[in-house]
């Protein structure tokens, strides 16, 4: 049985704790939602024993089928969470999971957690066996057309009501980053604003919270406003902003530009391409100028190289200074003609 994260509560109320449950998806927020719901329900049923395991080279698959000898006097059931970081249990792990699906341990619920599976992973015998035996929660980010409704439902968790334009604005801002969306909704809930919230109220609230947010930086980049962009970047650095969100935004802008360049070269209608990229009518001219700015100095390849180096510095500790690379890219986006000079002047202050 396939479930969404939002359907898990109803399933548990109707069927109780299953001996085996799978949670796979590409959205950490929804995976965590599902786990929190499951843990809360298990606790309500008197289950206080919980173990967490992460598959690695030393993981002993035999422990899955070993009966518990550690249950307390007040609990006759335990919850075991097993994360497969890459969704690849290997031969021994695959066999162990298939055997467990056929013969689950009576006094426990095993929860398999992993990323969104693709291609051969979906056809693997271990996964097909799990899918046939256990409920499967698909914790994937909603499609773009479903995102406003998802946001409205998410807002209700925090007693927030959003009008359609407000939902659309948040969808524009946070598509692909639901964790940041959830944090924004929590901040809005604490501000005790008149409801339902409209587009203007959310824009003003965001400005009040921090004029130097990642999205404020994005606006400056697109407009080619170098001084405001550097000022906002410096504030983000000072506030220890989440580098993953900043990196995501910088990559997304590059992808937008390369997609627009490809569309123009192939003679596609930009009127159709803009909505696909979440570039709205009031932004079209700014993005046209942004693309011309980068093309006139042939800087898109250099931007791609900087993004690659930022990724290596962030995820693999390549040795290059992450803030220096990000500053250089911000300068490149805003003023390609003098990016190297501007970046050099800013390095020492960052």
- The sequence of SSEs as H and E is EHEHEEHEHHEHHHHHHHHHHHH
The CATH topology label of the largest domain is Rossmann fold
User: How do the strands line up in the largest sheet?
Assistant: 1-6-2-5-4-3
Helix content: 55-70%
Distance between the termini: 52 Å
Tell how many strands the DSSP assignment holds: 6
Shape label: globular
Question: Which secondary-structure class do the elements indicate?
Answer: alpha/beta
Strand fraction equals 5-15%
- List the uncertain runs: none
Question: Nearest-angstrom radius of gyration?
Answer: 24 Å
Layout of secondary structure:
Layout: E1 2-4, H1 8-15, E2 20-25, H2 28-44, E3 49-54, E4 78-83, H3 90-102, E5 108-115, H4 120-123, H5 125-133, E6 136-138, H6 147-156, H7 164-174, H8 178-190, H9 199-209, H10 214-223, H11 226-238, H12 243-265, H13 270-276, H14 284-296, H15 300-316, H16 322-334, H17 339-347
Concise structural overview:
The protein has 350 residues and is an alpha/beta fold.
What would you note in describing this structure?
- There is one protein chain.
- The chain is of the alpha/beta class and 350 residues long.
- The chain folds into 3 domains: 137 residues, 3-Layer(aba) Sandwich (Rossmann fold), CATH 3.40.50.300; 66 residues, Helicase, Ruva Protein, domain 3; 134 residues, Zinc Finger, Delta Prime, domain 3.
- Helices cover 57% and strands 9% of the residues.
- It has 17 helices and 6 strands.
- Strands 1-6-2-5-4-3 form a 6-stranded parallel sheet.
- α10 runs parallel beside α12 and α16 runs antiparallel to α17.
- It is globular, with a radius of gyration of 24 Å.
- The mean pLDDT is 87.
